[in-house]
Amino acid sequence: MNWYLRALKQYAVFTGRARRKEYWTFVLCQVLAVLGISYAERALAVANPEILFGWFTAGYLMLTLVPALAVSTRRLHDTGRSGWWNLLHALPLLGTLVLQGFMIPRGTSGSNRYGPAPQEAGRQGRRFQGIWT
């Protein structure tokens, strides 16, 4: 859950890199939230019966669209790819499957053109934390 909240706190940060754990935790929480909201909408009979969700689910998805794109872009940066690969979402099924395939492998070790590895950045922050606080 902390990784999900971290992605939401970095609402529109499209620079840097995101670990696999951050990305996949965000995706899991998104799926669970959408399933929960749409279930509640169906139980309260406010969902559109043709698509099985309603305005609350659509609103939630709209509110989390920018954080989802941001964490996806940072994850692509971690694998050494440009964030412009997110445009594959425009191809409904094939593009999304290819994009999810890009998210599976481990990120590049060390620094790449998008910044230091997320694990290294966290260690550096902890190392210098005692000096400044």
From TrEMBL:
Pfam families xrefs? DUF805
Which residues does the annotated region (Disordered) include?
110-133
Q: Where does the secretion signal sit in this chain?
A: none
Q: Which InterPro entries match?
A: DUF805
User: Transmembrane segments in this chain: where?
Assistant: 23-40, 52-71, 83-104
Keywords of the record, alphabetical order, are:
Membrane, Transmembrane, Transmembrane helix
What is this protein identified as? DUF805 domain-containing protein
- Species this chain originates from: Achromobacter seleniivolatilans
